[in-house]
Amino acid sequence: MSDITFIRAESVTTEPRLTRGVLIGVTMALIAVLLFAPLIAVFAEALSRGWAAAVASLASPDARSAIRLTLIVAAIAVPLNAVFGIAAAWAITKFDFRGKAFLITLIDLPFSVSPVVAGLALVLLFGVNSSLGAWLVANDLRIVFAFPGIVLATMFVTFPFVARELIPVMIEQGRAEEEAALTLGASGWRTFFTVTLPNIRWALLYGVLLCNARAMGEFGAVAVISGKIRGETTTMPIMIEMLYNEYLSVAAFSLAAVLALLALVTLTLKSLLEWRHADLLAATRRH
Amino acid sequence: MRASILRSPSPLPGFGLSFGVMVAVLSIVVLLPIGTLLGRGLMIGPGELWGMVNSRRIWSALSLSFRAALAASLFNLVFGLVLAWVLVRYRFWGRRFVDAAVDLPFALPTAVAGIALTALYAPNGVFGQMLAPLGIKVAYTEAGIWMALIFIGLPFVVRTVQPVIEELDREVEEVSATLGARRAYTLRRVVLPTLAPAALTGFALALARSVGEYGSVIFIAGNIPNLTEIAPLLIVIRLEEYNYDAAAAIGIAMLLISFAMLLAINLVQIWSRRRIGLV
What we know:
The structure holds two protein chains of two kinds.
Chain A: H1 17-46, H2 51-58, H3 61-94, E1 96-97, H4 100-108, H5 115-126, H6 131-138, H7 147-158, H8 161-173, H9 176-183, H10 188-217, H11 220-226, H12 236-245, H13 249-276, H14 278-286
Chain B: H1 2-5, E1 6-8, H2 15-44, H3 46-53, H4 56-89, H5 95-101, H6 104-107, H7 110-121, H8 126-131, H9 142-166, H10 170-178, H11 183-211, H12 215-221, H13 231-240, H14 244-275
Helix pairs in contact in B: 2-14, 3-14, 4-9, 4-11, 7-9, 7-12, 9-11, 9-12, 10-11, 11-14, 13-14
């Protein structure tokens, strides 16, 4: 009797206790070094000369114009991409048409194009030495080295975010509810606003959140197309680079800390969405 | 348009509008610029294009970009699999916090990550000072580029593999154990093949992102020609010299190599899906 051993039921589907402990220890140590250390470094460097220096550098005209420009660019690019994402998801999930798979591949294309190449492509299309660019300049419309170029570059790099979140959710939901609404006499727009939009709102918010984080932080594509004209086309990331290269470390890291805080807010909201609406977002994560 | 493109009729309205908006925005923002870049390449001609790319500095930059991206993505593939497993299967203090923090590289702007990593690994930085006595230099060497690319590519594999682990049927592992397999054998022969397609998707996404990465790399790389100068930086340099053709040539080379690589990964993925009967 005494040599009966009790084996816990879960023991065959998990690793030995020691292995688990080691794996948890190693992965958490790596996360601390790889992820948390850089984040802490941003705030430590920003505050290396005290709060006053950090706050003063954020009040400078350069920093203020960079913050303003970044906010305006995001305020234009993100809603435009949201409208695009909704239109794309509606066309792709509610209808069956030829070339659908190819279109989805094209929507994902910006993920496999370097932001610098994206900026280059926009410069080639709208720059002065293309025929379109020459016509634009003749009509006093500036895109390259100006505000519209920054918006276009931002839209390019954030292009797939909203559509990618919406498409799996809308496939899962099917189109029966919309069909019912139409049968009951609702107009197309009314069906969209009262049936579809409430169904997809959390996925939409999730996509917009990710899109916004990337839009405010985009560097490569904007660096190429903005021309880096101080106070005019310098977004926050570009300003950070300029200050850093001028050895104005506190100013650069203070501006970086603002973006890092924004990243933390984004992560918090994202986690809240994931915990609260796990069932609704499950389709997105499964695909 | 509706009749010719639609495969089967739908009672829902708005096809023309949504399809039109989608195609219009896609064309203006993505297709027209990329088309212009490729068209520029055709105008220059393949022979001339090859002549422009065929220099030691450009080959060094291209091979550095792809080599470092491959190294960092391989690290992230292994680490991502382990991390996803730990986050889903084990219960420990702070798990949900770490789970949320994995997405930090998606939310933190690349330029911010770049200067932060440089501050840490520079000779007078916290990690730089610790590594210097060991004779290890990270900032302003290729190792610095790996660190930056590991940072930005970290979430991809974790996020693609995690949902698959969550939906794994534990009974399959039990059966394997009942049939006498040791745990390590079960993990290698039963669990890993099921995770392979998702892991490859994450690997491909991380690779595509790292190859073209610019913001986080240029601060820590040191940008020494032929040594630590990445391909996107060379494009920026050529553009600043207003040498559009040379910039376009490097851009096209990057596009072609990226697409070839993604195609190869896709083929491996199809093969691994077939293997586990998930066509």
